[in-house]
Design brief:
α1 packs across α4 (61-88). Helices cover 43% and strands 23% of the residues. The chain has 13 helices and 12 strands. A 5-stranded mixed β-sheet has the order 4-3-5-12-6, with helices on both faces. A 5-stranded mixed β-sheet has the order 9-8-10-7-11, with helices on one face.
């Protein structure tokens, strides 16, 4: 048994049982992948994959049982390498961060700037995607840290840590009717206008939908986007009323818009930072996490990785 055999099994599942893709990922040949898998099956005395002729079409019941062990062995091997790196080069290396657009655009810049000053020899890679894509990048090992508002806490393989709470704002062009009306903004008044907001699953959209539904309202959502800047652009054009994360509104940059505090209309949202369960984190990763969320000290993160709950 060797690690190349284990990697062949893992990547076969990740690539949907397409051995051509597996060979490309592992920089080898398709016959080589088939041989590695068959040799491991022979050694274990089981068939890991269901076959239809020469094609692999799924996992057998023994394969379903073996796969988590394969994943754990490969993760432990990666942790062993990282542990060695931790002591041989404590201030250099690579840090890959996956985040939604709102986090990458508004919450991370100052943290990334300060981190670079402290660790100039660490190469930072920033990936953007939906909350689901952020989770998948963590699970695949493509990212070391994931930051998003929704979805991360629903994956058992991830440790999702609470970072900070935030609310929504309604953004409208200068002179909009909502700015002229007296009294606090209500959902009933808001629902009279076309709405521009986030795609389903992004940046607190669930709380927006839940608030309208609780009042028996069906707002006209005319445009959705994953990017607050896009929402603000179309709100400025007068296409509708924008609903964005409060952090996404900057009075200096958004001079043609005005923001109305909507914290009383929609539930408070919680941004989470996640890492893959069982992953060895290098010292500078803990430093980045604490810079982003000061309550997440190394001790707090390590306790979470060991199964202790963190207060939200």
């Amino acid at each position: 048994m060797n690690f190349q055999q284990l990697r062949s099994v893992r990547e076969t599942v990740r690539c949907g049982f397409n051995l051509t893709e597996v060979a490309a990922v592992l920089h080898t040949s398709q016959p080589g992948i088939s041989r590695q898998i068959r040799e491991l099956e022979d050694e274990l005395g089981i068939e890991i994959f269901v076959r239809a002729g020469k094609r692999l079409t799924g996992l057998t019941p023994p394969g379903e049982a073996v796969l988590p062990i394969v994943e754990r062995l490969l993760l432990d091997a990666e942790n062993l390498r990282r542990a060695g790196d931790e002591f041989s080069a404590q201030t250099s290396g690579r840090l890959s961060i996956a985040a939604t657009h709102s986090q990458a655009r508004y919450a991370l810049p100052a943290v990334v700037r300060d981190f670079r000053q402290l660790y100039p020899q660490v190469t930072l890679n920033l990936h953007q995607g939906s909350p689901k894509q952020v989770a998948e990048m963590l699970l695949s090992g493509e990212a070391d840290i994931g930051i998003a508002t929704e979805a991360l806490a629903s994956y058992e393989q991830l440790v999702a840590l609470p970072c900070y709470r935030w609310t929504h704002s309604v953004v409208v062009p200068i002179g909009h009717d909502l700015l002229k009306q007296e009294g606090p903004l209500t959902l009933q008044r808001l629902a009279r206008y076309p709405i521009i907001t986030y795609d389903v699953g992004y940046t607190g959209r669930t709380h927006i939908d839940e608030a309208f539904a609780a009042e028996g309202l069906k707002p006209s959502v005319v445009l959705t986007a994953m990017d607050a800047d896009v929402i603000k652009t179309y709100a400025e054009l007068g296409m509708g009323v924008g609903i964005v994360a409060s952090i996404a509104f900057d009075p200096e940059r958004d001079r043609q818009l005005r923001a109305i505090d909507a914290r009383e209309l929609f539930a408070v949202n919680l941004t989470r930072l996640a890492v893959r369960r069982g992953t060895w984190l290098r010292g500078y990763v803990y430093s980045f996490i604490e810079a982003f969320a000061p309550t997440l000290t190394r001790d707090a993160v390590e306790r979470s990785l060991n199964g202790e709950a963190v207060e939200e």
